[in-house]
Known about the structure:
By secondary structure, this protein is α/β, with parallel strands linked by helices. The protein has one domain: Dinitrogenase iron-molybdenum cofactor biosynthesis domain (Nucleotidyltransferase, domain 5, 2-Layer Sandwich). 24% of the residues lie in helices and 25% in strands. It is built from three helices and five strands; from the N terminus they run E-E-E-H-E-H-E-H. It has helices at 62-74, 89-97, 110-118; strands at 4-10, 25-32, 35-43, 81-84, 101-104. Strand 4 (81-84), helix 2 and strand 5 (101-104) form a beta-alpha-beta unit. Helix 1 (62-74) crosses helix 2. The longest helix has 13 residues, at 62-74.
Amino acid sequence: MEPYKIAVVTDDGVTISQHFGRAKYYEVVSVEGKKIVGKEQREKSGHHTFADNHHDHTNESSEQTATKHQSMTDVINDCKYVVARGMGNGAYQHMEQSNIKPIVTDIKIIEEAVNAVINGSVVDHTERLH
């Protein structure tokens, strides 16, 4: 199996953020075979970096939303998966269109979730999309 990367949204590098859009970082985990071989933290744009800084997308054009999603994707375009504990429907679809498999998990600890992805036991809780 080819080496690949898993991006996990986080604010502290240990736990998975409950909200994809609000998380400040991606913890990017490199995987070879079934082993974690490296980790790096990357800054992630999100609600904290956009000027309006509120969660209400109702006045946003679809173009503005797409631009925000693109800026969140660009930094992890070398990753095969992105893991969060909550995510908006638009962000989820954007990740899929960018060939990054989004996974909404109920696992709180990054290392546990990454191991679940590696061994194929992770459950994608799409009912948590909003």
